[in-house]
Amino acid sequence: MIQSVDRAIRILGVLQGARRLSLSDLAARLELPPSTVHGILKTLQAHGMVLQDRDSNRYQLGPAVLKLGNVYLDTLELRSRAVTWSEELARRSGCAVRTGVLTHDEVVIIHHEPRPDGSRQMPEVGIVIPAHASALGKAMLAYLPDQLDELLAKGPLRSMTSETVIDGDELRKQLDEVARDALAAEREEAVLGEAGLAAPIFDASGLVVGAIGIVLPAVDWAPADATFGAVREAARNISRELGAAHWPIQPR
Amino acid sequence: MIQSVDRAIRILGVLQGARRLSLSDLAARLELPPSTVHGILKTLQAHGMVLQDRDSNRYQLGPAVLKLGNVYLDTLELRSRAVTWSEELARRSGCAVRTGVLTHDEVVIIHHEPRPDGSRQMPEVGIVIPAHASALGKAMLAYLPDQLDELLAKGPLRSMTSETVIDGDELRKQLDEVARDALAAEREEAVLGEAGLAAPIFDASGLVVGAIGIVLPAVDWAPADATFGAVREAARNISRELGAAHWPIQPR
DNA sequence: AAGCGTATTCGACATTGTCGAACGCAACTC
DNA sequence: GAGTTGCGTTCGACAATGTCGAATACGCTT
Ranges for the IclR-ED domain (chains A, B) (predicted)? Predict the structure, then answer.
């Protein structure tokens, strides 16, 4: 692990959480001398990864990170497959559809198909949700015991709403059920008033590479039986296109 | 400039251009020993900035970059203003609307309003276009002589189509006209069959912070007079909301 | 089974980043 | 308007750190 690179990424991470920060704030949060942080910041700035507000001198993320993000999406085979099947799933379920991948303890949304009712909706590509509080995250974690252990070892689970599962054992119990059905649900655990239903996506090597699912108003729970089937089918179809031999894969 | 951080970002940049690369390819392109690149790569990997394909061992960008990109968009005041006015501009012009910012020699799209005809269109947020070959880029460069000098000093302009302006003097001449009208046009200079029209956006300090414009099929050139006015108005409205005292600002 | 082309590990060396201190600058305060 | 405080930034000596060549391990082909 190269120290300065690690520090640079940690700077980006802090900036990600706090939007705009002064050099001294940044240094305080990282527990590093300001001059050290300054050197790294200037390097990041030269590449457009961060930029400094002319008026306040505070630092924030720069346009170069956006460029990188877009290229990541283009390289993902999963995404191109998800686009096709999301459309169908949205039509069949009448709900917005999200596809996501796992990074450490969070789900990153890589595709978002708006509800097919024609209303204006914010694109959600790139947003992150704690894995333990989302249907997508649970669908993936159920088949990734190592990632789950790592997540639980890291510290207490963050509570998002009163419904968030923050007990490790309770989460494990839920995930056992998820693995049995290849279907994960979430009711107001991340956002009040919102529920989710998701299924895991596997690739040719039989490992979970993502999950696809629907988002619906909590009051519309439970969805029709056909909807459960539609989510599982979307996940299975994408998995097959990625070369997965079976769906679902048996965990462990 | 911290060497290892600089190298890390260069690695990300190469990965951005080439999608997936083996360690030796990557090392060869950067003219660095493989072991040096490997150390940096492993650090980036630990943070999810890059990931390694299990089968081929090749490296590619990871989900963490996508997360960063999304947060960058959220911090941009310009973007939230652009969303409102893009909608109006799309309605008035009947065209797709793009808003972009400048990084070095490229325009990064930070908002994309699809053509209001209801057809399915790929979201274009995050894509990059060489500044000299786009209406958005010209609109900004006309008011940023320093950036223009830097761009021209860096080397020959990249040709995208037969229409791309690759002569520095010719570009300067065009930009003088752009600065006079506060309106930049582009006809098939980046993509054959596509034309653009854009106007610069200024902030409270009177500097260019972005540009907004429309994309239309080259065969539909020239747009109606009202459309020219609509583009300028959108740029002026956003500039005013950002605190700009005047629009356009006089260059130099 | 042998050989090649990979990625990866290791360790010695000196290059390089680090950190404290000093500087410059602007915005307040009295 | 002089003094003061709180910034960001620059500088340079030191040694911690990243670098690179060589050695190892791995997987694929022949």
Answer: 64-244
